Amino acid sequence: MARPTKQGLDYFPVDVNFDDKIEIFIAEEGAEGLGILLTLWQLIYSNEGYYIKNDDNLVMLIRRRTMSNVEIIRRVIQSLLTRSVFSEKKDKKYGILTSKAIQKRYFEVAKTRTNANINSKYLCMGVNLELTTQSKVKKSKEKKRERGKFSPPSITEIERYVAKNSLSVDPHSFFKFYKEGKWIDSKGNPVTNWKQKVLSWNRHSKGHGDNNGNGNPVSLAERLAMDLKEAQEAQKAQEEQKNEKRTV
Q1: Between 160 and 125, whose confidence is greater?
Q2: pLDDT of residue 212
Q3: Where is 208: in which H helix or E strand?
Q4: Is the pLDDT of residue 2 over 60?
């Protein structure tokens, strides 16, 4: 079983110089206030990475680490919200402590991760979800799915492909055959590459003319039998190749 991806960080960067909001906060709350702020950053970055729930459990965790009085911790948190060190809007709406700076730092450090759990509602204005690895991976998968998604060709597309490659294929018969079969091949798998099927049809046509040898068009059952035979031959060739490798 694969190990779960760590959501939080093992380290976080701290600026050499604080901005004016934090400088004023430190002037008001002193060293104890700064210690509580650093503890909050530690708890945020090490757990969810970009936010933390603002509740009684948070206050107790800070108290255990700093031994500060509960009332002081609550006052300091309120001061941080008032000074916009943390987003007052996100706290009122979702009961969390976060900020634009915290989120940008987290996403920068965690950008190599493939499945960080991001709640877009918690993102601050100016923090783009596209910056997260999760969304990049998601977009990449969507593009791959889009590229791999099969779209049935039109008769005109088949005609152009046949003419361009000088193939002995009747585009209308080919289109009718696969359309009636709901674009499922002889092995029961959905067609993913119609051009490959045209080439396969062309090989059969060369062996049988464009008919069954009697001047009559090849029936749907006969065409299915041809496709099935080709699939069986290909499987047999693969098995023989595997056996040869084992004997060597």
Answers
A1: 160
A2: 44
A3: helix 194-208
A4: no
Contact 23, 68 (CB under 8 A): no
User: Structural domain tally of the chain?
Assistant: 2
Give the domain-ending residue among 82, 98, 113.
113
Rounded CA-CA distance 141/54 in Å is: 35
User: Is the same domain home to 163 and 102?
Assistant: no
Residues 79 and 171 in one domain: no
Give the angle subtended at the CA of 164 by the CAs of 162 and 170, to the nearest 5°.
15
The pLDDT tens digits of the residues spanning 128-146 come to 655 444 445 455 555 555 5
Q: Roughly what angle, to the nearest 10 degrees, separates helices 70-82 and 56-66?
A: 110
User: Are 97 and 40 contacting, i.e. CB atoms less than 8 angstroms apart?
Assistant: yes
* Whether residue 105 sits in one domain with residue 19: yes
Of 79, 113, 147, which marks where a domain is finished?
113
User: What span, in angstroms and rounded, lies between the C-alpha atoms of 220 and 96?
Assistant: 65
In tens, the pLDDT along 69-113 reads: 999 999 999 999 999 999 999 999 999 999 999 998 888 877 766
Residues 108 and 8 in one domain: yes
Domain that holds residue 72: 1-113
Kind and range of the H or E element at 52? Answer: strand 52-53
- HSE toward the beta carbon, residue 81, CA cutoff 13 A: 15
Contact 86, 98 (CB under 8 A): yes
The answer to whether residues 17 and 109 belong to one domain is yes
Which pTM does this prediction carry?
Answer: 0.51
